[in-house]
Q: What sequence folds into this?
């Protein structure tokens, strides 16, 4: 298996742990770091809908809580449906924060059942606001 295959498998496994009783839209995300480490997240819904957490945000929070800063190389996001999904706007910003800490522009794998769309984070979030903008 390739590194992409491993990352996609991790994202799909994470989606299996989704807590999405309201939408039924189980999403999994996996982050690959230069160290070889993979950190996963899944979406977590809440009865107060606005408090739901996206899979990508959960994965970034886990990584940062474990002291990981930067070196983000690749991201895989998968969910239900016939088409690949991309990170939402909020998640693009959260992913960008982690990527900018290490000066990377990670490859984002938007995974569907039969198709993978490969984009750089900078393509999904052009002219991004990040830590450097505060200097």
A:
């Amino acid at each position: 298996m390739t590194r992409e295959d491993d990352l996609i498998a991790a994202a799909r496994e994470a989606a299996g742990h989704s807590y999405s009783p309201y939408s039924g839209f189980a999403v999994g995300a996996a982050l690959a770091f230069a160290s070889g480490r993979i950190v996963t997240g899944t979406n977590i819904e809440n009865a107060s809908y606005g408090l739901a957490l996206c899979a990508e945000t959960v994965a970034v929070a886990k990584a940062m809580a474990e002291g990981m800063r930067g070196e983000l190389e690749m991201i895989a996001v998968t969910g239900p449906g016939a088409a690949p999904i991309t990170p939402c706007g909020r998640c693009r910003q959260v992913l960008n924060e982690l990527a900018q800490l290490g000066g990377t522009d990670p490859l984002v794998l938007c995974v569907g059942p039969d198709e993978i769309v490969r984009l750089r984070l900078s393509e999904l979030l052009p002219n991004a606001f990040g830590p450097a903008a505060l200097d």
About this structure: Helices lie at 3-15, 55-65, 89-102, 121-124.
